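Blinded run. Sample ID left blank on purpose so nobody reads anything into the name before looking at the predicted structure. Input follows.
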Amino acid sequence: MKEKLKIDIVSDVVCPWCTIGYKRLEKAISELGIQDQVEIEWQPFELNANMPEEGQDLVEHIAEKYGSSLEQQKQSQQHMIDAGKELDFTFDYFEGMRMVNTFEAHVLLEYAKAFDKQTELKMHLTKAFFSDNQDVSKRGVLQQALLDVGLNATEGLAQLDHAAARETVKNTESYWQSMGVTSVPTIVFNRKSAVTGAQPVDTFKKVLTDLLAEQNQ
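Blinded prediction complete.
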């Protein structure tokens, strides 16, 4: 049996370019017909690790963090909306939208790994935030996401108050930062090479084709 190509995706739940990057990678994998030759694992990264429980108005947050004017933000959002449409993903930016803390979402993504439900839960949470106007820092929203993907919500939510589970996520975040990951998405292949950003589908196809050819030599 051929060894699978291991793909680690370092990302955040509320990162629009992470969503676009993954959807393009998914399209590349599908178009190449190599679904059975790759194994994806999601790795935690918090864009805003110090985000308070109440979150922050998105316009205010982006202006503060990146110095972007409202007009620049509108242009950037439209760019993401258009990119999402090409990939059948809806970005619904609305007035009063808030950036939120995602640490507990990452704890649940770590929990989902043992059940091979990481990708499903990740995309469910991303859709909840960007498409369905939901606050993914709220435990009620997290609970519903667990139920929707067929996981044990009681067991999953218990992880959020489990010191070891929280520590695992913190340590994993630190590991990827120590490996030089400073922006997301960072997509790592076999823990040897990486690409950053939401690359075009054709770029992913070339990277995947080259790596699989090299691996199967």
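Unblinding after everyone has recorded impressions. The longest helix spans residues 16-32.
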